Fold this sequence. Notes:
Elements: H1 2-14, H2 17-20, H3 23-48, H4 56-72, H5 77-99, H6 104-124, H7 126-129, E1 135-136, H8 144-171, H9 173-183, H10 185-190, H11 195-221, E2 223-224, H12 226-229, H13 232-245, H14 252-270, H15 275-289, H16 293-312
Antiparallel strand pairs: 1-2
Helix pairs in contact: 1-8, 3-8, 3-11, 3-13, 3-14, 4-5, 4-6, 4-11, 4-13, 5-11, 8-9, 8-11, 9-11, 13-14, 13-16, 14-15
Amino acid sequence: MRHPLIGLGFFALIAFLPVFGDNYILRLGTMFAMYAVLSQSWNIIGGYAGYPSFATAAFFGLGAYTGAILQGLGLAMPLAWAAAGLMAAAFAAAMGAAILHLKGHYFAIASLVLAEVLLEITTSWTSLTGGGMGLNLPIIRMSVAAQARLFFWSMLVLAVLTFLMSWYVSAGRIGFALRCIRQNEDASSMVGINTTLYKIIAFVLSALFVGSAGALYASWVFYIEPPDVYSVMTTVRPIVMTMLGGPGTLLGPVIGSGIFLVIEEVVWRNFLSIHAAVLGILIVGLIFYLPNGVVGTAMRKLRKRKAHKVETRP
Length: 314
């Protein structure tokens, strides 16, 4: 019970940013919430099930274009965000049924190709997506400050919903089945776990809120183009954030998102011309010294301390 309350308390602290911060702080808060959505979603399939998915960019880009096209047709913004999530989930269900029989590197390559295929389709379908010229979204008629608060609150609510979904998965039958699959998939199947079904459920859940985040991002920036929303960095960031925080844990992706955002912002400010190289070196160093992430390392030390107390008890 303690971990979910710690996570919800952390989000509650973030919710106070509009009281003390300006638009720049709200932008950081919005970025953190979006990163938290991506990393928590990836943790479902990559952390709990142990399947190295590189499909996050595909779900994010598909959601961004679905939301942008629906808003262009006149659908209300919140409904477009919800529809984008459902579209990404439906796509994940169809693709998951096709590629989740693959394992290890084969599954990773197949999931990586999804974003490239969608990128080519989006670029070629000029009449619907604008092709390489990108797509403009309807302008929101409100002040800049009001827009900053709107997207901050919207992305934060989405991050909390993703956290609650992750909590439900972690504490329930789905999480148990996914952890069994990660330990030994063949043995899990032999004891009666429907591994194919649970892997597809995990893949769908890893896409649902990412699709909505993509649509929300499109509404936030007002203009999208294929190389932006299908960027390989959209796939890499959630993996790195989850590794920093602790894969397969409830709080790890949230904490990893905060650590990554702080490092990214500091590096951008101080090493503008070589920020990518510095950021990469720092992240590799952190993962090297904390192979189980911040949360995983802390939990391991706590377990060792408890075991030591039991052994030394008279």
